[in-house]
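Bug #77: duplicate submission created two jobs. Keeping one. Sequence:
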Amino acid sequence: MNLKRFWAVFVCRNWEFLRDRSTLTWNLLFPLCLIVGFAFAFSGPGLAPYQVGVLNGADASDNAFLKTQQIQFIPVTDLPAALTKVERHQLDMLFDPNGRRYWINDESPKGYLLERILRGAEAQTAFSKQTVSGRLIRYVDWVLPGVLAMNMMFSCLFGIGYVIVRYRKSGMLKRLKATPLTPLEFLSAQVASRWWLTLATTVVVFIGTDAFIGFPMHGSYFDLFLVFAIGALSLISLGMIVAARTTSEELAGGLLNLLSWPMTFLSGVWFSLEGIHPFLRQCAQLLPLTHMIDAARAIMIDGAGLMAISGHLLVLALMSLLFMAAGAWAFRWE
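Kept job's structure:
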């Protein structure tokens, strides 16, 4: 690889992005508006479907509470993990009909209402109340890692996939092919440019929203940056697969939307994945955005370290290598 040619393409792509004021403004203002909007819209307790974990399962025919409508009952088997979900407001209540006990979070208004419903449904049966107290987590605190990761996803996929297709359609790649520039130098410069620009805009958005609203950060900023850095690389590599041979901007846009929107809804950006179908929950583990969001939330909310999220980092690193190899192998100038 010739570093001078790599650096020339790298600088050129950076200036092209920075001079596009509309794209730069969108990348900065869109996530900021989303986060501020959620901060105001969900500043109160809100109304949402109730989710109750049922420890070791139970026969609904033998329990009046389990027959209650408008409550989603989720079977759980791991008591410590379920208690953590109650603490983090992922479950509104943990119910153990066999042990005649239940757990709620004292800071959860939905837990209070579910307790009243339980006592009304089981008026003839005595249940032991146990509480789980955790740090107060607002919905906007929980959704922030997802919004940041989602904004990175769109920036990475469209910033690499759509741009290279545009170069190919305009004939720029055909002209570059006639120069000494190699595919490795060109693709490396594109990936490096998009990588640092995405991380830079994400840092600016994070600092701006944190100064305006204030978010809990119980882990390491370095660990969070590392998660976003590896996650961004995997998403850029995924976008490179789309750009490898596509010649139509319309087709590229459709393919990129086909990749991005399932990740938006199945990766836990807006809501917890606890209540969805188990098959979809397994499918979500195949998406890089899921591992980015889970690792970022573990760091910011639970104070997790690198060892605790090492599984997510390993998956993201393997996805990056796989996607990058596939994109480089399939790339054609024309």
